[in-house]
Amino acid sequence: MLDMINRFVFGRDRVRWALPKVGAVLKQHFGASGNYTAGQVKRALTETNAANDLHPLIYATACIEEEFLKAQPELTLEDYKTLRAETVKILDLPHSNLSMRLFMQRHSAEIGNSGEGGAV
Questions:
Q1: What b-and-e string marks burial along 15-45, b requiring 16 or more CB atoms within 10 Å of the CB?
Q2: What's the start-to-end Cα distance of the chain, in Å?
Q3: How do residues 103-114 score in pLDDT, each as one tens digit?
Q4: From CA 38, how far away is CA 19, in angstroms rounded?
């Protein structure tokens, strides 16, 4: 039980750290968008050295269903939906219409309100 709690808590922190970095690289190279191709996300994952176990969640956040399945052929459409729902919970987003644009807007607003300043 403690292992499961630790994995969830530390997993949340890792997602909250990795997703903005990947989002910033995607925006820098490919412009602001709600969704990206599997190849674009792969490039961002490589540049940010995001942990391999976060890749499915990041693909599910940044890609439409078809691109997710292209990038993660061992996973299913149900996995895609589950990962997106988990991302909404982890990031405490207001609704389930998840997109990279929504995430980056929300994340940028939080940084601006935190007093840390700077862009993602």
A1: beebbbbbbbbbbeeeeeeebbbbebbebbb
A2: 35
A3: 666 655 443 443
A4: 15
**Phi, psi of 80, deg, nearest 5:** -55, -50
Chain-centroid distance of CA 39 in Å reads 15
Q: Are the C-beta atoms of 48 and 56 separated by less than 8 Å?
A: no
Name the residue type at position 111.
I
Tell me, what DSSP letter sits at residue 1? -
- Sole residue written with tokens 């991302």: 87
Where do the structural domains in the chain lie, given as residue ranges? 9-108
- Reported as a single tens digit per residue, the pLDDT across 92-101 is 777 666 666 6
Structure confidence by residue, pLDDT tens digits, 14-36: 888 898 899 999 999 999 888 99
Nearest to 67 by CA among 87, 41, 86: 41
